[in-house]
Amino acid sequence: MFLQLAHTQLDVFQYSQDLAMECYRITRTFPADEKFAMVQQIRRAALSVHLNIAEGCSRKSKAERKRFFEIARGSVIEIDSAIGIAHKLAYASLEQLQPLGDSILNNFKALSGMITQCG
């Protein structure tokens, strides 16, 4: 935020920020008894995506960057899986989840591209 490093201008970084915001938005509507279970897991995974992208961009070697981007993409998959369970439990409708679904797809595609670039 204060450092204004180059990675903050990347689309993938912006997408991950949007993903985190969408995860926080949708999990506010989940039942109170999920506050320390599914809600925390989804939010933790969303922050993991954003933070691993930031840290990966700061690494000098392609191999190190690739590993952080792979971890971030794994967290995107984790969010998608958890949201699938939340939908099956009727915590949110597909309509309510659509903005999050779009964000999940954007992040997955962008991170896959970053991983490919790293070789």
From TrEMBL:
Database matches in Pfam families: 23S_rRNA_IVP (PF05635)
Family matches, as InterPro entries: 23S_rRNA-intervening_sequence, 23S_rRNA_IVS_sf
Protein name: Four helix bundle protein
Organism: Niastella yeongjuensis
